[in-house]
Amino acid sequence: MKFMKLGSRPDTFYSTEAVRSVSSEVSSDLIVQVKGSRYLLHKFPLLSKCFRLQRLCSECPESSPHQIVQLPDFPGGVEAFELCAKFCYGITITLSGFNIVSARCAAEYLQMTEDVEKGNLIYKLEVFFNSCILHGWKDSIVTLQSTKAFPLWSEDLGITSRCIEAVASKVLAHPSKANLSHSYSRRGRDDLSSCNGSESHRHKPGWWAEDIAELGIDLYWRSIIAIKSGGKIPSNLIGDALRIYASRWLPKISKDKKISKQVESDPDSDSVGEVTSKNRLLLESIIGLLPVEKGAVSCSFLLKLLKAANILNASSSSKMELARRVGIQLEEATVNDLLIPSLSYPNGTVYDFDIVMTILEQFMLQGQSPPTSPPRVKGAFERRRSRSAENVDFEF
Questions:
Q1: Which of 330, 356, 325, 327 is nearest to 341 (CA)?
Q2: What is the 3-state secondary structure (H, E, C) of 225-237?
Q3: Of 6, 40, 149, 161, whose CB count within 10 A is highest?
Q4: What is the DSSP code (8-state) at residue 251?
């Protein structure tokens, strides 16, 4: 990944009990409180670069040798503030795709603009972001992922949209022309390169699918929409990407156990209901991204999505859309493929017969003659209908 170093002085920040300070022959005259942490610093280096601190200090009369400024809603917390403070002192800091978003949001909060001082932090971050971060594949992906912690700030500063545009442009470009400093997939080798370093790697079609599968659904949705709008990627590659994403994020689902085990591994959720709701939203988003072309995704994948939609109680429109798509490609399916667990019965011993008939109706609407006539399929399915559905599970 690409990185940039700013400043040349050694790090002289130190901690004394609950206070962070910097070694200096000059007595400190400014106390900055950031989310419960206290910094004992100096006005001159900070106020000369931070207009917000200038304004806050001017609004608060000096009643003691140390003027106190509180920054309770500081984006990025103490780590981002300390990075900005070190820049003000000329202490060496290292920036990369992992911390540039928090640094950029923090610099914006402190108003470290060119109006305050030429060559200020915002300017340097923007130059690095535009000339290095957006030119690297992994750099763009990592930076895009980090915007999740600062959604409003990242949107307002155009960081999210620029990263998505960069990712989409690299997917749409011929692999030999894409400047990839690193393959972000698990197959890649984790290299570090300076801002001047870069490598170009050739990848097979769809090389990008596994990489962007690391994104959360909101950013993934926007990235896929941007890629699809380019009109250069075949629909089957979009379908493959969605299958990879589903296998990455949708859990292994079984009707009897559902997804209760996932709650233990999901620290952001408090209940099975919350996890179910999250996965339902993810599933419906994937369905909304499916290419319209027949054969872009396999009938098997569509049926797995349909089974998940039934168990997660997805919207009727989502299930009907999947049933319609399965009906179009029904010749690829077997009767066993159509054993879709039903949630309509408390004892959980039957399959969903109605949705299968909807699939068959959709198949007939295509003006085709099924290999097995509907009455025969119906009879075969009814014979299997009474089988126990409790142990049915599937993976993407």
A1: 356
A2: HHHHHCCCCCHHH
A3: 6
A4: P
Total number of residues shown for the chain = 396
Query: What are the extents of the domains in the chain?
Result: 2-131, 234-396
Q: Which pLDDT band, with edges at 50, 70 and 90, does 66 fall under?
A: confident
Structure tokens given for 385: 């209908």
User: 136-181: per-residue pLDDT in tens?
Assistant: 999 999 999 999 999 999 999 999 999 999 999 999 986 545 454 4
Q: What number of CA atoms fall less than 13 Å from residue 157's CA on the CB side?
A: 27
pLDDT digits (tens, 9 = 90+) for 355-375: 888 898 888 887 655 555 455
Nearest Cα residue to 305 out of 346, 359, 262: 359
The tens digit of pLDDT for each residue in 239-266 reads 999 999 999 998 766 544 455 445 445 5
Kindly list the distances between the CA atom of residue 213 and the CA atoms of 79, 185, 207, 244, 304, in Å, as whole numbers in the listed order.
Answer: 28, 10, 11, 7, 18
Residues 6+ apart with CB under 8 A from 163: 134, 140, 143, 144, 147
- The 10 Å Cβ neighbour count of residue 161 is 14
Q: What is the pTM of this model?
A: 0.83
CATH code for the part of the protein at 2-131: 3.30.710.10
Q: How far apart are CA 133 and CA 166, in angstroms?
A: 9
* Helix-strand-coil split of the chain, %, nearest 5: 50, 10, 40
Widest Cα–Cα separation across the chain: 92
> Locate tokens 């200038």: which residue?
54
> Each residue of 107-138: b (16+ CB within 10 Å) or e?
bbbbbbbeebeeebbbebbeebbeebbbbbbb
**C-beta separation of 100 from 15 below 8 A:** no
d(Cα 24, Cα 26) in Å, to the nearest integer?
A: 5
Q: Which residue from 84, 67, 74 is spatially nearest to 13, judged by alpha carbons? A: 84
Q: Average of pLDDT values for 20-26?
A: 95
